[in-house]
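Project standup — Tuesday

K.O.: blocked on the structure for the chain from last sprint. Re-posting the sequence here as requested.
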Amino acid sequence: MNTHTPAAPRLRGLQDALWTAVTGRDERAAAELLFAALDDGIDAETVLLDVIAPVQARVGAEWAANRLSVAQEHAASAIAERIIAALAHHRPAARATPRLGRVTVACVDQEWHVLPARLLSEVLTLRGWQVDFLGAQVPTPHLIAHLHTYGADVVALSSSIPTRLPAAHAAITACQAVGVPVLAGGAAFGPAGRYARRLGADAWAPDARSAAHRIADGIEVPLMAVGRQQIDDLPHLGDQEYTLVVRSRPQLVREVLAQLESRFPESAAYTEQQREHTAQDISHIVEHLGVALYMDDDDLFAGFLTWTGGILGARGVPAGSLRPVLDVLGTELKDFPRSTRLIDQARTALDALLAPAGHTSSGASDDRSDQPALLPDH
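H.V.: unblocked you, prediction finished:
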C-alpha cells in the first residue's frame, strides 16, 4: 500500500482526536486511532512528526497555562512514549532495511525529556539508518564506552533543559575526542542552536526532519580533540565565577531564605510544604544563574526568569515574588562582575514583565494552598 501525507484538515482532525485520547488517559483509543491512520496509508513519519509531536507540544503549552496539572502532563507524555514504542512494531515490513550507516541517539546526562530523541530515532530508522537509541540521561562515560564498543557515524545528542548544557559540552568534547561528530538538538541549545555552536557541536538541527536531512548530507568527522578542555571553547570560565557560584549554591539558598520574609511579606504565611518548595525553587534559580555564567549569556538567565514569571502568573502566584530572590543574590554576589551583570539584566526583564500587571497576575486565583511558593513543581 502506498503511503501518503494527508491534507491539513485531516491532520488537524487526527491531532484533535489524539488530544482527546491522551488527556482522557485513554491509551487504547490513542493507539487504535494511530494504527488506523497507518493502515489507511498515512506514512509513519507523518504520524510521528505531524500528529504525535504537535499534540505533545500542546500538552506542554497547556501545562504552562495551568490548564493541565503536572500529573495530567506526565500521563499524556507516558501514553505518547508507549504508543511510539508500539508503532515501531506495527507493520514491521514497512520499515526500511538499515543501509545508510549507524547513528547513536542519546540524551545528555540528567536529561529526562526523552521524547524528542525518541522521535528522531524512529525517523532515522524509518529512513534506513541503524540506530542505537540509548534513551534518557546517558552519563558521558557510558556514551563513550558505547562508541568504543559499537562505533557510530554520528552521535545525535538531545537536551531540553538549559541547565544540562555543561553536561552536553562534556559529551560533545568527549565524542569528538574519539573521532565521532556530534549533531545537537533540543530546546536547551537555544534559539537557532546558538549554544550548540558555542559548545563546539559539529551540527545542529531544530527538529527531527531537519536532523535526518542533516545527517544524510554527511557531517564531517572532527579532528581528534584529545586534551581539549571546556575552557578552550569558553575562555570566560577562567574567571572561576561559574565554579564559585555552583559550589556556593547551598549557602546562597540559605541566605535568600533567611531574608525572604522581610523582603516578601506574603511568604510569612507559607505552609511548611511551601517553604520546602521555596528552597527547591531558589536552588533552581541559582542553578540557572550558574549555567548562564557557564555560557556567559544574558538572555539565558533573563529568559528563564520571565518565563517563570509567566508560569507563576498562570497559577495565581505573584511574579513579584521573584524580585527579592534577585535582590538577595545581587547583594551576595556583588563582587562577581558577570553575576552582577546577569542579575541586573534579569531584574530589568522581570520589571518589564511586572509593570503592565501592577506586580500581580490579573484574574487568577490567589489560593496558593496547593501550589509551590515560587516555581511550579515540574
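K.O.: great, moving the ticket to review. Strands lie at 102-107, 130-135, 154-158, 182-185, 203-204. The chain is about 55% helix and 5% strand.
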